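Supplementary Text 2. Reproducibility record for the structural model of the 388-residue chain.

All settings were left at their defaults, and a single model was retained for analysis rather than an ensemble. We include the record here because the model underlies the residue-level annotations in Supplementary Table 4.
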Amino acid sequence: MQSQSIHKFGVFTAALIGMNAMIGAGIFTTPAKLATAVGPAAIITYLFVIFAVWCMAQSFGRLSELYPGAGSFWQYTKPWAGDTVGRIASWSYIIGLSVAMGLVAKYAGIYLHEYVPSLTPSILTVLVLAAIGVLQFIGGAAVAASQYISICCTAFPIIAIAGLCLTKASIANFTPFAPFGLGAVLSAIPAVIFGFMGFESITTLSEVVHDPKHTLPRALNFAVLGVGLIYIFFIGSIFSAIPASTFASASVPLSEPLNQLFPNYTWLVNLIHASMTIAFISVVNAVTFGLSRLISSLRKPMQTGYAKLDQWLPTFDALALIFLAAWLLKTPDLFFAIASMLLMIPFLTSFITLLTLPRERTVITYITCATTIIVFCSAMYNVIWQLQ
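Retained model, structure tokens:
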């Protein structure tokens, strides 16, 4: 018998997959928040988050080697905490990601309001989620197509906005550098890390990459550092051209200050606005598909026996969680903080598994746990402060 050769990914392809998972519509939700609450000092926040995410990525890479093919917080947590805590960790991740998508869905409604002013942003958000439900039931082809659409509609605004802003860049816009104090730099961590979520997906590639022991760490390094540089360049270009006072609130569409600054490029700003609107919808559509798969795996003991119902219920659950988040939470800060807090719980329970293994108690593992706790505490502080 002839043995079939299986094509496996190299470093570049694995890094590209990780970058696509990270670079999403979340990057467009942060500039207004950072301008109104942090100022140019947000670049320091980005540097800390890049370091923190890089450490987390190294630890997830090690977990993927120790537990190949697992790729879930349930299976990473079980070795030290048992099945129940593993499931709680998985649900924490699902709910945290649903909260994040609630904000993205809410922004889709805000951006669509410019095209349909007769309907409120809240109603438009509900209609977006209903349309996504229809797409989910059509099948995987619609979800796959949305991935390509999302990538294009995310890349174009980043390039176009940075290009426009650099034409009016001024060092004077970086002063004062920290108008809200250094405490604001730490409090912005949940908002900044929001744009990096998805980096953990690269660790699930251990079975499809060549020489995962060496390929995954290198791919993780390239992906995290590459995305970090893109984000700093993007945010830096915005701060260099758009005075913070131009942003009326943390939820203002990015197209508003761009229209004020570039009145002669209204057509381009309108195109950017449309691309970001499509990107928001495409990202929620794609993530809903992934969430439904995770929920399905956790619901297996509770299956009804009806194939169609068991297939549709996880999708309904995912959309219901996203809708509840969009409906209950009112400010971007609450979305950022609650999502980050819930996502850090399964991250930490997974990293503790490494601490239970004597050979894995490395400097990186300890730094990873420490930075994860810092992000969690910053998010929890923001939640408490917002609810007061």
